Amino acid sequence: MSFVFLFLFLSLCCKTAATTCEEQRDQASQEGLVGAFVPECNADGSFKPEQCWGSTGYCWCVNEHGAEVPRTKVRGKPDCSKKGVLSFCQSLQAIIVNVPGWCGPPRCKPDGSFEEVQCCANTGKCYCVDKEGKKIEGTEKSGQPDCESVTSKCEKTRLEALAKGPLLGQFIPHCKEDGSFESAQCWASTGYCWCVDEKGEKRDGTTVRFEQPNC
């Protein structure tokens, strides 16, 4: 009899705490909702790399925290053997959810970079972004914007200036047809003009007034 009590005592006192996966699994099982998703755990309590939602027929890969790996959800069995570091876009995609009033998660290319066109679910408007996923001001519109023509620094700077509205006396850069900076830039409201390099930076000693500089 004493052996039985000792066994029960050791079982209770030495029981390890449930892992995140086990807690989520047990909670889902206890709620008993028909068709609910129930996480699958390994023997050591970690998340199985492949998770399936039986009532929907969809499966996907997860990381060690149980977060869904973007672009892995399929009907049937996904290939979760390929492991890699998520890009910034993919990381945002994994943690941002569709919440009313929010634009939702970003759209990523297969290589992990940001899609040039991003859309806001709650407004129905789309806009262009740079390589870091930052919105290019002046490109937002209903429908798909033409982001191929908004790639140069000059065009981006020009659009950002125009997007501020008709501010009296503001400087708006001039761009060539290929998107590069015009070698001579002028600030109409002041009468000053100057030369710039290919990056749009002013060349020292080239500023003149009420005339075109020799660039």
UniProtKB/TrEMBL annotation:
<protein>
    <recommendedName>
        <fullName>Thyroglobulin type-1 domain-containing protein</fullName>
    </recommendedName>
</protein>
<dbReference type="Pfam" id="PF00086">
    <property type="entry name" value="Thyroglobulin_1"/>
</dbReference>
<feature type="signal peptide">
    <location>
        <begin position="1"/>
        <end position="18"/>
    </location>
</feature>
<dbReference type="InterPro" id="IPR000716">
    <property type="entry name" value="Thyroglobulin_1"/>
</dbReference>
<keyword id="KW-0964">Secreted</keyword>
<feature type="disulfide bond">
    <location>
        <begin position="52"/>
        <end position="59"/>
    </location>
</feature>
<feature type="disulfide bond">
    <location>
        <begin position="119"/>
        <end position="126"/>
    </location>
</feature>
<feature type="domain" description="Thyroglobulin type-1">
    <location>
        <begin position="86"/>
        <end position="147"/>
    </location>
</feature>
<feature type="disulfide bond">
    <location>
        <begin position="186"/>
        <end position="193"/>
    </location>
</feature>
<feature type="domain" description="Thyroglobulin type-1">
    <location>
        <begin position="18"/>
        <end position="80"/>
    </location>
</feature>
<keyword id="KW-0732">Signal</keyword>
<feature type="disulfide bond">
    <location>
        <begin position="89"/>
        <end position="108"/>
    </location>
</feature>
<feature type="disulfide bond">
    <location>
        <begin position="195"/>
        <end position="215"/>
    </location>
</feature>
<feature type="domain" description="Thyroglobulin type-1">
    <location>
        <begin position="151"/>
        <end position="215"/>
    </location>
</feature>
<keyword id="KW-1015">Disulfide bond</keyword>
<dbReference type="InterPro" id="IPR036857">
    <property type="entry name" value="Thyroglobulin_1_sf"/>
</dbReference>
<dbReference type="InterPro" id="IPR051950">
    <property type="entry name" value="Dev_reg/Prot_inhib"/>
</dbReference>
<keyword id="KW-0677">Repeat</keyword>
<dbReference type="GO" id="GO:0005615">
    <property type="term" value="C:extracellular space"/>
</dbReference>
